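Holo prediction. Input below; ligand is coenzyme a persulfide.
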Amino acid sequence: MALDPDIFKQLEDTVARVVREKWIPLEDDVEETGEVAQDVIDEMKEMGLFGLTIPEEYGGLGLNTEEEARLMFEVGKAAPAFRSVFGTTIGIGSQGIVMDGTDEQKSKYLPKLAAGEIVGSFCLTEPNAGSDAKSLQTTAILDGNEYVLNGTKRYITNAPRAGLFTVYARTNPEDKSAGGVSAILVEAGTKGQSTGKIDKKMGQKGTQTSDLVFEDCRVPATQLLGLEEGVGFKTAMKVLDRGRLHLAAACVGMARRLIDDALAYAMERKQFGQPIANFQLVQAMLADSETELYAARTMTLDACKRRDAGEKTTRAAACAKYYATEMVGRVADRAVQIHGGAGYIAEYKVERFYRDVRLFRLYEGTSQIQQLIIARDMIKSAS
Ligand code: COS
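Structure of the complex:
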């Protein structure tokens, strides 16, 4: 359900102002400390950012996909660490419950997630199951009225600070197909569950990922998402269909930032007696970036609108994620080029964003997986 347009505009303006006036000036602190400060997180909670996509009846704002994307266009302008604080909670960490949870599960967890009392985390990837998510090996075996979980989840965003994990595990180890997979809700601190050390990454400092390990971790059988076994893989795919649009929008935001920074630099930096923005080869880079940004923004909004209208948008979401994540990679590369030597120096930040955006082409499905989803859907429709 869409918000009243005036209320949404106010929210969009507020988010844009906070990004501009608070988050961007704090980017160097995040880079240095590897963390987003607690007072910033508290303000995010007050602004309702943890509940953007959670239905109003459970304390969120219930934004539709287009509204979520429009906010991510703003949020994406700041270093990705800021979005990541609440990004999994409004995205892949909560949407499984919103889509497929029972009323009881929704009432138990969604209000806490929406308030930012707990962070939600999505646990699909494993050491031996990345792109081939269906081959996951973590098990959740019913024993009396409890599921017993064993296995390791890898690169789990926000695992170190999450309060609730949606864990995709095999409830029927005999069944190696998607039908053997179920989603189990595991609260942080449950005996038998632990997180590994925080991963050192190429970029995106301040976002936290780690392993999540289960050793005879017992949870009540009522923690089975939707109280239905064997549909977990489908839940994960549906969640990713929405999550990929969220990420595409975040890439559009980051591209806007990179282009604005590159343009400002090109207008100020003088060589051969004039601003380098006067040179047509620099203009070509700016124009290519602006054109591709426009295409990614339009594509993302179109996919979101179609999803909000009830259309199945697996293919459109994959197209948007594929194009926007590749686009921001090219834009970041050109931004470094326009900055020249300064583009390689940390204080100009552009080298940092160049590294940060690399991840977008990997997580929530690599570019190659998006290509595969798109082409398979084309073939299916044509047969
Ligand atoms: N929505 C609903 N159901 C879906 C779906 C979607 N978008 N995509 C697949 N399914 C269903 C299929 O219909 C199928 O159900 P049936 O067995 O009833 O027919 C089931 O899920 C299995 O799908 P499929 O056979 O297509 O699975 P594959 O293993 O061939 O491929 C891909 C699935 C490659 C698309 C999937 O594994 C994937 O997205 N991989 C990338 C994972 C990823 O993004 N990881 C990042 C983790 S989050 S950082």
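The pocket of coenzyme a persulfide is lined by residues 124-125, 131, 133-134, 178, 233-234, 237-238, 240-241, 314, 363-365, 369, 373 (CB under 6 Å). That is the main takeaway for now.
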